[in-house]
Structures are given as C-alpha cells and as structure tokens.
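Researcher: Please translate sequence to structure tokens.
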Amino acid sequence: MVELTINGITVKAGEGMTILDAAKSVGINIPTLCHMKNLTPTGACRMCVVEVDGYRNLIPSCAYPVDEGMNVETNSPRVRTARKTIVELLVENHPQECLICVRNKNCELQDLAERYSVREHRFAGESKSHAIDISSASMERDPAKCILCGRCVRACNEVQKIGAIDFSNRGFASTVTTPFNIGLNVSDCILCGQCILVCPTAALREKSSLKAVTNAMNNKNKYVVVQVAPAVRATLGEEYHMPAGTDVTGKLVSGLRRLGFKKVFDTNFAADLTIMEEATELVQRITEGREMPMFTSCCPGWVKYIEMNHPDMLHHVSSCKSPHEMEGAIIKSFYAKKMGLAPEDIFVVSIMPCTVKKFESERPELSSDMLHDVDAVLTTRELVRFFNIAGIDFNELPDDKFDNPLGESTGAAAIFGTSGGVMEAALRTAYSLLTGKSSDHVEFEQVRGFDGVKESELNIDGTTLRIAVVNGIGNFPTLLNSMKEGREYHFVEVMACPGGCINGGGQPIHQNYEKVVKRVKALYDIDRRSESRNSHENKAVSALYEEFLEKPGSHVAHELLHTHYFDRKDKNRKIAVEE
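Model: Translation complete:
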C-alpha cells in the first residue's frame, strides 16, 4: 500500500493502482472518454488529466500509477481549463444537431459540455464532413459524430477480437473506419453492436425499424403481432430508473398492447421449442456418431462469424433457427391457419436485445414462400422510443400476461438470455431424451458465470458429455486452439456478446458491468420461480407437436424450424446442414 493526498484527502491505495481508481475509492469523480475498465489504459483523450506536485505537465490519471507521498489536485484552475478546452474543441468539430440526435440526453460529450459550462463557440473553424454508412441492415456509422476516443476500436479489436474497424490517417484527417472505408455490410463486422454500447456519442447506432413498424400498424390490411425476447424484460426497467435487473414482464406486455399490437407473444415459447429441436439434434448426433461437437445456432452474430471465418466448420452448427425466427415461422403457418389469417397479411415484430437480429431477419433462407419469418426487429432502445412517442408512462402500467398459445414458457427458456443459458436448458432436456426420465437436478452450475470459456464433463446415464460455453466471440479462438490440440467436445454454446443477450448491442447504453451481473441474476430468478423449468414440460409446445409438427426433428419441423448456412468467403456456396 502507498499513501498519497488527493484534493487534501489522505488516500491509501494499492501499489500499481491508477490515480483515477484511487480517486474513485474516496468518492472523487474524474471525467474520462477513452478509458475502458479492465483494458490497458491509453491516456489518449486527456479528459482525465490531473495536476501533481513536482510534475511540469498535467498527467492522465487513467494511465498513471500512484506513488508514495504524491500530492494530486483533480479540480485546480489549470485542470478545469484544460478539460474545458478539450470539450470545446470536440464540440466545435461535432455536428450541432443535438435536438434531432438519437443520443440526445444520453451523450457523454453533451454531458461534458454541460458539466464544464460550454456556452459559446470559441474555436469556430473547419469541421470534418463524412458520409454516413447505412449499408448494413443492423447498424449505421456516422464518422462526423466520432470524437476519436477509440473505445469502439478497442471493443472490436481487444474484446470481440473481430478487428472490423480501426484508426485511419493522421491529424485532422484522422478517422475510425473499416479497411479501405468499405461498408459495414461487406466488412468483417458481425454486427454484434458492442461498439454501440461503448460509443459516447451517436457515431455508432442501430438502424431504426420504427418507421417500418408504424407503417405496418397503420395499414388496416396488416395483422401486426409482436414477440419479446427473454433478455428484454430484465433490462427495459433501467430506462425508467428502476434498479438493474428489475423484471418488468407484466408492464412490458401491457405497454405493447397499448401500442396497438394485435397479439403479444413470448419468444420464450419458441426458446422452449428451440430446445426440443436442438436437444433432439444433439442426441441424434451422439447416437448416430455424426459430426461433433455440435455448436448452438441461437446467436446470429456467432453464425455470421463462423460463416465468414470458419466455413469449413459449418457442419458442426445446429441447423435450428434462432427462437424468434422459429416463432415467426410458427405464427405464419400454424397460428395463421388456426386463426384463419393469410400469412402474407401477418406482420411479425420482434423486440430483441440485439442489433444483428435485424440482419438475421432479412436473411433469405429464413423465409417461406417469399415471406420472411420475422418482418421487423426493434431493439430494447427502440422500444423505449416507441413508448415515448405514444405517451406511455411505463412506470404506471399495470401488469398483464402474454397471449396464448404462443405465450407459455418454462424457466429453461428464461435463461436463454445469459451466457450458458442455452446450454443449461438443452442439457435439462437432453437428459430426459437420453434417459427417458426427468431429472430432479435441473441446475448446471458449471456452465454459469462470466469466464471466457467454461468447460465441463457430465455423465448422463452412462453417456459422458463434454461441453463448453464460449462467453463472447473474442474467446472463440481459445476454444478453437483447444480443439486443434485434440480436445474433444460434444456440445458447445457460443454467444457473441460478453454475458450473452443480456448484454446485447441493442440493450440500454451503460458502462457498468455490475448491471450485467444483476440482469443475469434476474433471469435465473425467473427460472427459479417458474412452475416448470424444463422445456420438454411446456404443455403448449407439446400440443403444437401433437397438432401440427408431429414430433421433434420431423420432416414438418425441419421444413419450418431448421435452416442452412452460407460460406461467406465463397458467396455462391450454400452449406446444407445434414438432417
């Protein structure tokens, strides 16, 4: 431990701790822009500069370690002037369109301008001008709003290890862009949206689908229905000042009804349906000696990643569609027939925690008779805007329940939203399929948590299953190296976003990973409170098989609920998944 003084306060700090963290430990807040927790500091933006006795220049507190006897001032006139000047320079080179910006009132640059009372244009001059990249189905990139903090670059390169964007040029011409400034749609980007979560401005944002949804709802010939992913109910409350991890399922359903949707369905129903198909496929692969391991296919960011980078491994990916695509397919087939509706008149909207779901919904192979399974995807953030436009006071909404028959679900479906959840839900049902009996032990603690790669071996009635869970796409190379070294697995779950969908790119903007921990706990609490915790015990799913799908893995089920993939290195080569 070392002892130093910060703003006249004696502070004891661990050796090697930064001045920034030492100040935070005694309640002193120092502003930052480029800083990212748990990543090596760069000190690039200089917003966090402080004055230290004996040092001629101001030093970046995020990158400088504490020292014995150090005397630090974080709020001296010199420090305040330096920070305000930095903010003023950033503001002058930034589009002056806060009132029409999607990040209005949720922008770190705007907050800093307010904090340091920027009230005039002191440095007016030439500003950068760039075209907005709208090539992707999921995201938009507006370089004019980029303040070069580098957080998106670090998230993409160091956390996700994709490397789709980086710095280009120098000085005034500096920009963050894709290689050769190509569109996101043809870059290595997997559209996970993790860069959006760390962007302090609106330089990166989701492509809004609100106009398409409202147009459909205003069309009297359209029967517009909506479904909600498991992760949304544990995060939406944060936008209404509720504690992180608050379960707002009832209010969410009520709010969607007030928006005017004809039916409000639960994607959790399709999560149970997915498990029935995926667990059946896993058991078939084991008993028939087919390709191992089998990878989950619920995350479209992961699917896009393997299509682009490891197309030779696509035979290992489950042929199951993701839950919301399965639900869309069932709505436009089984439900349409049951209700006497023409499939082309039904407009399916998915409320998702994810940006890449927008890209997924437009994949041509996720359609039937030229009709997409899902017509539009709204992120959690877009739903908040929809409620605001409609004048809905979310906090005052009563609780309501999902519509049936596509609204019933189990606890296993709820945990789909977190890393390890799909694996755990599948194992619960795989146990039943392999043994012919239900298990009283439904919790698989070994696949839970935030480790990059979680591995375990399970003995199920004499069958040993070697499983792994990859938490965040940046950790997949670690698993791949293990496989190349000869380590064998039967079943592997991969989620592109660290923490799973609960931390998806369409979720509320935050820089606090403790929120993710609380969100995850909320999903496990829903599971624990559920009357049934096994997907194969969902009575509505069982009735669907009896009435329409025949049985898991049937020809009808494959026609509607399974898909194929593409080698994105060779755009013309379709990869058919063995049935």
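Researcher: Any highlights?
Model: The first helix runs from residue 19 to 24.
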